[in-house]
């Protein structure tokens, strides 16, 4: 990317406008993107997803699951809740077993999101993130979330209201243990994001988005 297409000076409106024009000329803003948020339970995947939809207007891609609804979750808002019978009526781009339940994301869901918005966001386990990178390398941006202390993750699940026995089962599952580490296949592609302090995480996300081609407006940087 040429020098005028990037700037680290976010307080200079003219430089930002030149950067936007330059990126437009390269067709960067015409591209579809899907931000895949992955990581172990309790690292903040859903919280980050909500920040990207609320602050940036990204389109949330809902996925399907056979797990039970948690308190406060709604069908068609948090997930499409399925039974073992209805689950495979969907056309999945990828699907996995996670902690003895099924989860899957459909191509239709992603395409629907892209009809409304060039930027979509989805929460997946690391296996799903690898599938997305294999199938759509140009469009997929992976964020891998972690915390500096794994005890924090269990605490957060309890604070979220998850039942103690379910937290234990979830954290003991081979998939949750696997996702505590960034898989080799994601090393070169995923952006690591330490989510200890929420204020810092938000700043980090804002900066990362500019780096990966988010269409900033000069006005975003005033005040
Ligand atoms: N591969 C894949 N993973 C999914 C899908 N939907 C959700 N997940 C992942 O399944 C795991 C369990 O999700 P959930 O039961 O909501 O628990 P949470 O991680 O504690 O919020 C998480 O890692 C999600 O990112 C999907 O469609 N495909
Ligand atoms: N940086 C943070 N500091 C403190 N609590 C957080 C932070 N990020 C998320 N949480 C809280 O931790 C809990 C689990 O977060 P969530 O986004 O549901 O995790 P995940 O989807 O990865 O399982 C939620 O109650 C959320 O509000």
From TrEMBL:
It catalyses: GMP + ATP = GDP + ADP. Essential for recycling GMP and indirectly, cGMP. It comes from the Bacteria. The lineage of its organism: Bacteria, Bacillati, Bacillota, Bacilli, Lactobacillales. Keywords: Kinase, Transferase. Belongs to the guanylate kinase family. This is Guanylate kinase. It comes from Ligilactobacillus acidipiscis DSM 15836. Residues 32-210 form the Guanylate kinase-like domain. Pfam families: Guanylate_kin. One of its GO terms (molecular function) is kinase activity.
């Amino acid at each position: 990317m040429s020098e005028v297409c990037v700037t680290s000076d976010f307080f200079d409106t003219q430089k930002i406008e030149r950067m936007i024009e330059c990126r437009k000329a390269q067709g960067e803003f015409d591209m579809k993107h899907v931000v895949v948020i992955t990581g172990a339970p309790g690292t903040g995947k859903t919280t980050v997803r909500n920040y990207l939809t609320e602050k940036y207007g990204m389109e949330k891609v809902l996925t399907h699951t056979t797990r039970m609804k948690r308190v406060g979750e709604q069908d068609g808002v948090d997930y499409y809740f399925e039974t073992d019978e209805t689950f495979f009526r969907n056309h999945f781009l990828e699907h996995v077993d996670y902690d003895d339940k099924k989860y899957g994301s459909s191509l239709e869901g992603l395409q629907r999101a892209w009809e409304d918005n060039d930027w979509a966001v989805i929460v997946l386990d690391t296996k799903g993130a690898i599938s997305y990178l294999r199938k759509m390398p140009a469009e997929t941006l992976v964020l891998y979330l972690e915390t500096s202390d794994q005890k924090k993750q269990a605490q957060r699940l309890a604070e979220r209201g998850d039942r103690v026995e379910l937290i234990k089962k979830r954290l003991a599952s081979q998939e949750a243990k696997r996702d505590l580490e960034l898989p080799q296949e994601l090393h070169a592609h995923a952006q690591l994001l330490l989510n200890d302090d929420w204020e810092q995480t938000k700043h980090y996300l804002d900066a990362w988005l500019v780096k990966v081609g988010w269409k900033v407006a000069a006005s975003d940087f005033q005040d």
